[in-house]
Amino acid sequence: MNKFIAVKVGKGDSFYLENMEVSFLVDGGASKNQLPTLLSSASISNDVDILVCTHSDEDHVNGLIGYFENSKKCQEVWLPGSWMSRLEDMLDRPKDFIRELYENIDDLDENFLLDSANTLEEMGDIISQRSNFSDKKKDDNSNIIPPTLPYKNEEMKFKIESLQDESSYIKPKENKEESEESEESEESEESEESEESEESEESEESEESLKNKKLYSQDNLSQFINEANFATVPFIYRKTSHQINSSKRDDIFKSSINATKKILQLATLAYNSGATVRWFEYSETESGGGMKYFKPVNSIEIFKAKKRLALEFLCLTKANVESLVFYACNEDDTAGVLFCADSNFSFQQPLNFLSNCQNLVVTAPHHGAEANKIVYQKLAPYIPLNTIFVRSDTRQSKNKKKPRPCVDYRNLIYSKYCTICYGQEIKQNIILNYRTGGWSPDKTTDCIC
User: Fold this and answer.
1) Which of 101, 197, 282, 365 could disulfide-pair with 340, CB 3.0 to 4.6 Å?
2) Are 120 and 256 in contact (CB under 8 A)?
3) Which domain holds residue 252?
4) What pTM did the predictor assign?
5) Residues 65 and 117 in one domain
6) What is the radius of gyration, based on Cα positions, of the chain?
7) pLDDT tens digit sequence for 108-146
8) What's the number of domains the chain is made of?
């Protein structure tokens, strides 16, 4: 492990890591245009090896879109597995998807809108919590996930049945060897079967490549954007089945369309860049996939995704509860970085692996917001006293009612660094170099929040 940098993006998170001769960029901040310049200002001039997106909030995903739009390259792109659920439908059947989204929002229960739902993020957290509660009751053999939110129209529960088969993008190679027909010709048959297997796999990969090339075409992306722009007529001006909360429905629809555009833009750019795209789905209990020295903490790598209603799918892509958390460590686990994204660590996976790390860097969850203060209590039993917390944030007014970081963050006994402290005007890149014995700040000032 060589270097960690919190890039001074104007808003949001963007973290760079050099580890085991591989470079990572985790999220990209809110600005599409500024990220390449900001990377250069932090002495990150080369293309990175792996780009990681933790969730679809604009202050995490926009910069990654700008990374590709500025013709920069990478070898792999790691994306939230929740995106896979309806990605094919959005690109291949945009008009049908937008119509379904509109109907979902139009049919949301009135009391739910009044009492519980204000944003996609809030609805996403509700869906995630209810889904995890009912996991044991799910039919694992089904390719669809029943609706979770309350709808006035009972038929909405059955509309999900009309969805097509599960989405799949990266298919693991299958063993296509057949049993020998006779022992006498065993070697000959194995040779023939091996050749046939290779030809079959090449044929399947070729078909999958052609399918993806067509699916992720710029024409499909443009078609969706055109359909979305045409569809953004407010609920308040359209004839709907329920007129209460029209403005709130309108806000939800606009946020949904905006989230969809971001997802499609990054997925399309990532695929067309030639990078390998890998998908990581949030899990409350399991983790798996990734790399030996860069692993998911609350997600598993997937190759297929079950489908949800359009609205519920988009809500989950914005859910802070399902923000992906990753952990990087060096070869002997003496140094590590825990990327917390906007997670509140409500997942159940054990964190005792952190006890092995002698020199740990932790990115502050959700920029040090009060809603995520429970994370510090959950980490405390496992992290060493020399842990360094790194917080990325935007400029805040001193008159802000709920300023970041929260009191719990300010009271942490560990070393802390911010890209910009509360009430300050000047931002900084947080640069930490690792050498035997620990992390060392380079031209970086301590937190004064």
Assistant:
1) 365
2) yes
3) 83-280
4) 0.87
5) no
6) 23
7) 888 888 887 779 999 999 999 887 655 544 556 678 888
8) 2
